[in-house]
Protein: Type IV pilus biogenesis protein PilM
Amino acid sequence: MFKKRPRPLVGIDIGSHTIKLVELTGSGQNRRLRRLGRALVPKEAIVDGAVREPETLENTLKALIQNCQPKLRRGASSVSGYSVIVKKINVPYDNERDIEENLIFEAENYVPFEIEEVYLDFNLIGPSKTPKGEQGSEIFLVAAKKEVVDSYADLLQNSGIRPAVIDVDGFAIGNAFEGAKGVINDSVVLMDIGASKSTFSIIKAGMPLFTRDMSIGGGQITKTIGEALGIEFSEAEVIKIKGIDDPIIARDVSKIVKDYVEDWAHEVRKAIEFFKSNSEPLDAPKSLYLTGGSSLLRGICDVFEDVIGIETKRFDPFCNMDKDDKIDRDYLSSVAPQFAIATGLAIRVED
Structure:
């Protein structure tokens, strides 16, 4: 479910606010962006990563596919939220075959669901020692509820895309970063801030070191703006993104946004400190990259940098990639950070 394979795929990131689609051609340093697009997801169609209105989502995805016209008809998507567990553990096996054969027994100690209800996989990090000093391995254990994975696969299948890979958001973002920047030897924080949740990851030399979902997202800001101004969610979303001419309302909105962003930055700092307290000093992150729709909020990079104390930038997954002539460059530069997960999925390949 999570392993690299050799056939190209279209990346489809199904979020609670938008569905994003990315199609690439080529590989390695010769990748080229061929198609991308996004479509708004009706409110409550996805809640906490779980599909609530499959027919509505299928119609939305079909319309997006029709609009983008990707050539590929095999796809990759990803899951996150409370139905997905990603945990770093040590196992007493020193090769992938033994890990795979015994994964179900190891998982029973860590997965808070009935083991029959989940799909299991793992990502090998490297060698480790057991408490008895024997050779073992450190892995990321991945467990995802079958009903959630199957619902995402069904969405793709019923929309005309063969579901070849269902990944995890945190791993997809890491793929996108490595595809754009190459392998970086320093530890890097990747923070994808979506509408209803965020994915926090730390990678080093192309390997994930830490990943978790966080209950922060741009929808919180939109809801608060709407309540403060007595307007609908959709109107509040426009004001949050584009601003408003009224100076008094603009000041109030700016304060709401700033207060939330500062809270987010403090939560991220806590996550980084937790990681550092359980890691080697050389693994301390040196920089932070923001992705997702809420990474486009004005001033967010400055606030994160001030609170956390490390260099913070927005991440453009297409920064070192050729683009199809039909893609509007100004539009792309304004939305690129929103497509990190979809790009990481499009980098994935299938047998």
Notes: The mean pLDDT is 92. The radius of gyration is 20 Å. The chain has two domains: 7-82+145-222+253-350, 84-144. The first helix runs from residue 54 to 68.
